[in-house]
Amino acid sequence: MENENGRVPGTPGSGEQWSAGAGAGAGASGGAQRPGGQYPPSGQNPYLQGAGHQPGPQQAGEPYPGSPQPGQQYPGPQQGGPHGPGSQPTTAFPPTGPQPTTTFPPMGAVPHQVAPSEQQNTGKGKSGRGLLAAGIVAAMLLSGGLGGWVGASVAGGSGGVGSGGLGAPISVDQPEGQAPDGTFQAVADKVLPSVVSIDVRAQQGRGEGSGVILTQDGLIITNNHVVGMAAAGGQIQVRFDDGTTAPATIVGTDPTTDIAVIKAESSTPRTPIALGTSANLDEGQAVAAVGSPLGLSGTITTGIVSALNRPVRAGGEQSDQSTVIDAIQTDAAVNPGNSGGALVNMNGELVGINSAIASLGSGSSGSIGLGFAIPVDQARRIADQLIKQGYATRAVIGVSVTDSPDGNGALVHSVEPGSPAERAGIKDGAVITKVGDRLIEGGDSLVAAIRSLAPGDTISVTYAAQESEQPSTVDVVLGEAR
Asked: Do 248 and 234 contact (CB within 8 A), yes or no?
């Protein structure tokens, strides 16, 4: 059977065919009807190039966290201000250049802290209820002083080895054999060759993060906050799993979705990741995060999908609704430096790009079991556009919103003339409570839901013309914006 690209499953296409299928779909919301075909089968990477290439089992990263370099000072996480129903709608987009690690504005009624994951070298219809009381910190690592911070001192331990079981001969043999499919060992063997460490040096500073190989000729997907500082001049170096390094250049960046694509200058064919889908993920499903936390390349941590459709602001101190991502939440340990790395399922297939972590706001940005990844269905659509045209587009409905005063819905403050919302009859003062089957509990929740879709998708929107009125449902064809 052929897939929508006209290729027999397992037969790779060119770099421009990798995402010829439908872009990011409705995901778990189930509310959108997309034009075009379906995604290629899970486990196949449309980025694979070279006629006749058969992708075989792959042999065994995320945002930039790190410590400040000598002579440099980086601001630490700061408490965000309150963000509640009275907040003004925001529509401005973040600057394309790198932002210093800073506190993110609160998400929901409880203030919390958020910091960009990579400025410096450090790091089915579910609702988004309970946005976060903790801060969201980009998983980016600041470089410098890492060895002393990570290193542990070995104490004492003199103990004799001439008596008891400790006197027995030491066996240096390890059992050999292939790890059974579906084990984390098998996942590591398959995924590690497809994940890289990224080192960025620019006038603003130095940062480290992770990336995921898309094609044999060196196209790599990562976070914008990992490589953004090099967009205006800087150096990017990629370290592969085999220990070799290569310089890289930026192909395209999209600050709004925090996705970037770079190209490594390597003559050696590389191992592309197997692409899965995020559309059928379930809470409780086992996943693994692979990347370079704190500069420790080739690190794999394990956990589960803790939640889906989690609205997360991941743009720094000045973050607003233009930085909201529709995230996969996981308890797999994600730390600074994991940004841009892989979140994979038990088949070793990419299901997300690790991007941010929650922080308690105490000045520590380590893992507390709350990591966030950009769903692969959205990431691949954006990456495909960056590769083909150098910029990305996103779906828009054409409204400016904040949280509804009663905490149940997104309150419309303004409707853009000629927008999809205006054509559907949605007016100022309306309260949107549902997109498809997905509950909308606030402004960020609506932004995340729309951003998970693609321009041209048709969705059903449930709203009340005023807070006290009965809701009605209309179909809306989403528009497109850069």
From this structure: no
* Residues 424-446 pLDDT 10s: 999 999 999 999 999 999 999 99
CA distance 345 to 281: 9
At 190, phi and psi to the nearest 5? -80, -40
Structure tokens at 243: 């220990």
Is residue 259 a contact partner of residue 352, using CB atoms and an 8 Å limit?
A: no
Structural contact between residues 454 and 395, judged by C-beta atoms closer than 8 angstroms = yes
pLDDT tens column, 1-19: 433 334 333 344 444 444 4
pTM above 0.70, yes or no: no
Give me the active site residues, please: 225, 258, 339
CATH 3.40.50.1980 fits 394-481, yes or no: no
What b/e readout covers 29-66, taking b as 16+ CB neighbours within 10 angstroms?
Answer: bebbebeeeebbebbbbbbbbeeeeebeebebbbbbbb
The vertex-194 CA angle with 186 and 144, nearest 5°, equals 110
How far apart CA 354 and CA 297 sit, in angstroms, is 15
Q: How many CB atoms lie within 10 A of CB 233?
A: 9
CATH class as words, domain 1-85+92-144+180-391: mainly beta
Total residues found in the chain within this entry: 482
Q: Give residue for tokens 């400025």.
A: 119
